[in-house]
Specification:
The protein has 339 residues and is α/β, with parallel strands linked by helices. The protein has helices at residues 13-19, 25-32, 39-46, 55-58, 71-74, 144-151, 171-182, 196-199, 206-213, 233-243, 263-275, 299-312, and strands at residues 98-100, 103-107, 110-114, 158-162, 189-193, 218-223, 248-254, 279-284, 320-323, 332-333. Helix 11 (263-275) packs across helix 12.
Length: 339
């Protein structure tokens, strides 16, 4: 059961930081000392997919540098408004895999709960930027229908909490959900997919550590960092607190043009992750979601980069290069470039 000491009513510091995220392009540009030429396209793109970025993450960006790799992940650009063939609203076939309200069942043995539509940060390449969260959200009905779908399928032994970001849920609500999941006898593992330990490390506070430590299922936390500059002292401390809960920590990245499409950058990311106790897991080719075409790295170039990274690192630090293909029974792993 969720510890009673976690039944808190007052907003926690992480919730305060979440609420004061930067949402106005003009404010973001002013903080970073960037010129007015970026404002009009940023506002036009943000009208379709809002800007949201925690101030602590902004603090890791370089002032005056419009090409900063952290800024480029969140700054709305005019490129997003282009209508590009083959870039669609549901690039990974989420809706075709629906197995219940907010329950996606793509792969054998595991199901994903869309726990919320809320995120701490709106990444411009997000493959769910057009997802119909109002209709497909496991939290509707107090998670009851979604939990019933999980109980009814004994082939599922692992549940993935995703969203949105499940760590935007408060501890009381998240704890109640975890209690209900632990009562399903055929579940063995719970996997948490979250960007908050990277972009809002304050979320991994003592109350959450107490809650998560009490989970009896095997615990896996998959974080999401794309560049070593995202990992500062606060992030390292949050990851250490997560590791102390008995969780396996993994990272998945997306290969992004102008952000991490460089073998040295990818090598430094793997080294920084492992130094923080996180094992590099997946390097995804871009999911072709509408509005993200300017981030794409062609497959032949991705395979060459992956080969270069493989030559620089021991095998356990090399993430698997993958593409998600709708309807496939697993992620599609790509071969290295031929020499």
């Amino acid at each position: 059961m969720i510890p009673t000491s976690l039944h808190l009513r007052q907003p926690q510091p992480w919730q305060h930081e979440l609420q004061r995220a930067v949402t106005d392009p003009a404010e973001l540009l002013a903080i970073l000392g960037l010129g007015p030429e970026w404002l009009e396209p940023a506002r036009a793109a943000a009208a379709r997919f809002p800007l949201r970025v925690p101030r602590g993450f902004v603090g890791r960006m370089r002032r005056g540098d419009a090409l900063d790799p952290l800024l480029r992940q969140v700054l709305p650009l005019g490129f997003e408004l282009a209508d590009v063939p083959d870039y669609v609203q549901d690039p990974v076939g989420d809706l075709a895999s629906r197995a219940g309200p907010g329950v996606l069942h793509k792969y054998a043995g595991r199901a994903l709960l869309v726990t919320t539509g809320a995120c701490a940060i709106n990444c411009r390449y997000c493959f769910r930027r057009h997802f119909p969260y109002d209709d497909e959200n496991a939290s509707r009905g107090g998670f009851g229908p979604a939990l019933a779908a999980l109980r009814g399928d004994t082939s599922i032994d692992e549940v993935i909490l995703s969203g949105g970001d499940p760590l935007t849920l408060g501890d009381r609500r998240l704890g109640a959900l975890l209690d209900d999941l632990q009562a399903i006898s055929h579940l063995r593992r719970v996997r948490l997919h979250t960007r908050l330990p990277i972009v809002l490390p304050e979320r991994i506070d003592a109350a959450f550590v107490e809650l998560w430590s009490a989970v009896r299922l095997q615990k896996v936390v998959v974080v999401h960092a794309n560049h070593a500059n995202e990992i500062d002292d606060g992030v390292r401390a949050a990851l250490a607190r997560l590791a102390a809960t008995g969780s396996t920590l993994l990272n998945q990245s997306v290969l992004l043009r102008g952000i991490n499409d460089d073998a040295q950058v990818l090598t430094e990311l793997s080294e920084a992750l492992f130094a923080a106790g996180v094992l590099p897991y997946y390097l995804h080719l871009l999911d072709r979601v509408a509005g993200s075409a300017h981030f794409e790295v062609p497959e032949h170039e991705a395979r060459r980069l992956w080969s270069d990274v493989s030559a620089r690192l021991p095998g356990y630090l090399v993430p698997r290069l993958v593409r998600e293909v709708p309807g496939a029974p697993a992620k599609t792993m790509l071969p290295p470039a031929s020499r």
